[in-house]
Write a structure and sequence with these properties.
Layout (H helix, E strand, L loop, with lengths): L19 E10 L10 H12 L3 E3 L5 E5 L6 H21 L3 E3 L18 H10 L10 E7 L3 H11 L3 H8 L4 E2 L2 E2 L5 H6 L5 E2 L7 H14 L9 E2 L1 E3 L5 E8 L4 H23 L9 H14 L4 E3 L6 E3 H18 L3 H14 L2 H12 L2 H13 L14 H6 L19
Parallel strand pairs: 8-9
Antiparallel strand pairs: 1-3, 1-4, 1-5, 2-3, 5-11, 6-7, 10-11, 12-13
């Protein structure tokens, strides 16, 4: 992302909506065994002929990552996401594979893990060793344009208490290697074993943030101070705040619903930062406890409200979030999309609930993988829950001539 308004203009400043971008990671699936397959480099090479670097490799060769160009409107972001998901799926099909959106591999893998060919991945193996065994997980990352890094790190303070709720909303990893792990987001548990990965600490300034990351790098608990793996971080290359806490959702409409909620939260926090509020000094242990509870129970249970320490249903926390950010949602035309996302959660649950329902209905995990693969790239699936109007075909039916922008160079590559 290269341009955008200062989110500190706030929900009453009538500024254009800050630019949004999405990154999603997917598993490549063998259609026979439904295990993950380490052919990522071949799939990426095929996809690049169509969309350039909007499809790229990831830590493990059984994964690919897709990226959208930055967009202001949720409908346009949705179009881009469906298009780039489709490009990745088409490239995978050409290699005899499927694409599946799940936070962890449902049916395990064929053969040994193959780490992607990137200097940072090799450095991570050298530094963390066997801690990276089984680190095969897929996330969604949301980028929101920021005016400067100082504002970005202080906005992160305001986001910390809400991160566990985002875990619960996006939880989509109950199975690993053919086993129900008893958690809604086992991906969150896997990530929690690292010394400097998870919710960011409270910081009182950019200088504080940079001194802390430098100390963690020197301790070797962090690989690179410029690229911390915290769940909220200023992007090291571009003027965005990156929110990385979510499992990848199966449906594009859900990713975009999360994205507009997160943008409204960033805009609201930015307005507070501009007025001198550096954010609540929420206890780090309470935030981690809230993460664990959200990872275990997902959307269906109660969670720890990290602002108060109270145990509240996730639906109640979500209603509080909407009220907190409602002015920003309304100003940027995102309220209906956010409410529709929460309605879908209320009606059918988070991804983990849907995976388990699919398993119980059909009694075989292969069917869970098939359902996930269908939802990941089948555009028809995104029309469910009243979202036909938000789909590219739905807009064409209304006479909208918007065409997704595709091709190389539309959004810059982000590390991580």
């Amino acid at each position: 992302m290269t341009s955008g308004p200062c989110p500190g203009a706030g929900p009453t400043g009538h500024a254009p909506a800050p630019l949004l971008g999405v990154e999603e990671e997917f598993f490549l699936i063998d259609p026979g065994s439904r295990a993950v397959s380490s052919l990522g480099s071949r799939v990426v090479a095929r996809a690049r002929a169509a969309v350039g670097d909007l499809v790229s490799g990831e830590f493990d060769e059984c994964q690919v990552e897709v990226k959208t160009p930055p967009r202001r409107e949720g409908a346009a972001l949705y179009d881009e996401l469906v298009a780039v998901r489709g490009a990745a799926a088409a490239a995978a099909r050409a290699e005899g594979l499927g694409v599946c959106a799940s936070g962890t591999p449902v049916m395990g893998r064929q053969g040994p893990a193959v780490v992607g060919d990137h200097p940072r991945y090799r450095a991570g193996l050298d530094q963390f060793g066997t801690l990276l065994d089984g680190f095969t997980i897929c996330a969604a990352h949301i980028h929101v344009h920021m005016p400067d890094r100082e504002t970005a790190v202080l906005v992160g303070n305001h986001l910390r208490p809400w991160l566990p709720l985002l875990v619960a909303m996006s939880a989509n990893s109950p199975f690993l290697d053919g086993r129900d792990m008893g958690y809604a987001s086992w991906r969150t548990v896997i990530r929690g074993r690292f010394p400097a990965l998870g919710p960011p600490p409270y910081v009182d300034s950019l200088d504080h943030y940079e001194r802390l990351t430098a100390a963690l790098q020197e301790s070797e608990a962090m690989l690179d101070a410029a690229i911390p793996f915290w769940d909220v971080r200023p992007n090291p290359q571009f003027p965005t705040l990156e929110i990385r806490v979510m499992d990848v959702p199966a449906e594009a409409a859900d990713t975009v619903g999360l994205a507009v909620l997160i943008r409204a939260l960033v805009v609201t926090a930015g307005a507070l930062v501009q007025r001198g509020h550096t954010g609540p000094e929420t206890c780090g242990e309470l935030v981690r406890a809230a993460y664990w509870r959200a990872a275990r129970d997902g959307w269906s249970g109660k969670g720890v409200d990290a602002l108060t320490g109270r145990i509240l249903p996730c639906s109640v926390q979500a209603a509080r979030l909407v009220e907190h950010v409602r002015p920003a949602l309304e100003e940027h035309g995102d309220l209906d999309r956010a409410v529709a996302f929460l309605r879908r959660l209320a009606e059918r649950g988070c991804g983990a609930q849907r995976q388990r329902i699919s398993w119980r209905r059909r009694a075989h995990l292969a069917d869970v993988v098939d359902d996930l693969a269908r939802l990941t790239f089948d555009e028809e699936s995104h029309w469910e829950g009243g979202h036909r109007e938000a789909s590219p075909s739905g807009r064409r039916e209304r006479g909208d001539q918007h065409v997704p922008v595709r091709g190389p160079g539309r959004i810059q590559r982000t590390d991580g």
